[in-house]
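User: Let's play a game. I give you a shape written as tokens, and you guess the letters that built it. Ready? Here's round one.
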């Protein structure tokens, strides 16, 4: 079929069980997911959901108890020794706590990853300055980790992960130890790297805001399972599962004072529309066409995967049949309309 995205990573019925105090803990339960070549794929979920365990099974840092991992269509689940080492050179990884070697400077930290991969001295001397430039750290090559900010440490982590020219980058909570400013800078860098090098990126986060900023598609994990997976825009605008709905609603910060929602004589709606200017005409048309009153309680425009998306909380007041017709009209003209109850 034309235009079918190609899966570069394919997890098939993955389960991971750990023996723990005489019992088994199942961290990942029968998860199947395809990650497409060149995309940024997010995995979101609360602590303990099994995100890291799933991510680590992609490069076999964690061997699945059941199921298969395919990379480029090849089943790698049983790979060992030299073939596993080669595979890992193609899959870079970065971590929440950076995992740098404190006794080595920035240059040496990156060079070490190349040495471990069996690269020659000449290759290393050429490549390390290239990746340091890519992450904006050319002038810090001789600094030691203790002298770097959190954001800079993660840049070293990224440079090290890219040193061996991988085509997959796995990121386990890459910004969770960073402040907001550094978080945004690192996300921007990961996005640039994805666009510039076309590197397939898998990023775990417990924060929907991270996912919203850079991912193309996202899987939501809950208690070891993927409960929902779609492109980021759909998951944000029309989450299917209750857990996803609560994750998403936290990010929008659309609280309306409770007393406003208590007014049972009016219809309170959350209206979602796509596009920056679309709403004004729709609202004035609604007022004009149906002879009702319309109050805006809250409104904002969000950007999800670079796509503008507006959210309005409105109240409709008037004769019940007119209000109902107005609501139907809004449903036709906007992306989504949902009733809100106090
Ligand atoms: N090596 C291990 N031995 C025993 N249990 C483990 C091991 N690794 C993970 N677990 C358990 O598996 C479950 C999933 O852990 P995992 O680290 O994958 O979750 P997570 O979604 O990454 O959480 P967090 O957001 O806290 O990092 C947890 O209950 C955890 O305690
Ligand atoms: Mg984790």
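Assistant: Ready! My guess for every position:
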């Amino acid at each position: 079929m034309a235009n079918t995205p190609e899966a570069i990573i394919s997890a098939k019925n993955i389960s991971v069980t750990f023996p723990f105090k005489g019992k088994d803990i199942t961290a990942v339960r029968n998860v199947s997911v395809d990650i497409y070549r060149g995309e940024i794929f997010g995995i979101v979920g609360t602590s303990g959901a099994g995100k890291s365990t799933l991510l680590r099974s992609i490069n076999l840092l964690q061997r699945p108890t059941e199921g298969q991992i395919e990379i480029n269509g090849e089943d790698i689940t049983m790979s060992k020794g030299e073939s596993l080492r080669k595979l890992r050179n193609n899959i870079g990884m970065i971590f929440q706590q950076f995992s740098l070697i404190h006794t080595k400077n920035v240059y040496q930290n990156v060079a070490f990853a190349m040495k471990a991969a069996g690269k020659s001295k000449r290759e290393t001397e050429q490549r390390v300055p290239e990746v340091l430039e890519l992450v904006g750290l050319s002038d810090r090559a001789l600094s030691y980790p203790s002298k770097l900010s959190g954001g800079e440490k993660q840049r070293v982590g990224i440079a090290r992960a890219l040193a061996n020219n991988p085509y997959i980058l796995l990121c386990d909570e890459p910004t969770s130890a960073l402040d907001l400013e550094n978080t945004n800078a690192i996300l921007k860098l990961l996005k640039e790297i994805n666009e510039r090098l076309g590197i397939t990126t898998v990023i775990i986060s417990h924060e929907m805001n991270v996912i919203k900023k850079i991912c193309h598609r996202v899987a939501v994990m809950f208690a070891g399972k993927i409960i929902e997976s779609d492109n980021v825009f759909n998951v944000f605008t029309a989450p299917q599962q209750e857990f996803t709905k609560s994750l998403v609603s936290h990010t929008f910060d659309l609280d309306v004072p409770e007393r406003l929602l208590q007014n049972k004589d009016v219809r309170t709606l959350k209206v979602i529309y796509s596009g920056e200017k679309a709403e004004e005409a729709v609202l004035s048309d609604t007022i004009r066409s149906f002879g009702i009153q319309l109050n805006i309680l809250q409104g904002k425009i969000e950007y999800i995967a670079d796509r503008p998306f507006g959210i309005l909380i409105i109240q409709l007041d008037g004769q019940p049949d007119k209000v109902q017709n107005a609501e139907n009209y809004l449903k036709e003209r906007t992306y989504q309309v949902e009733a809100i109850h106090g």
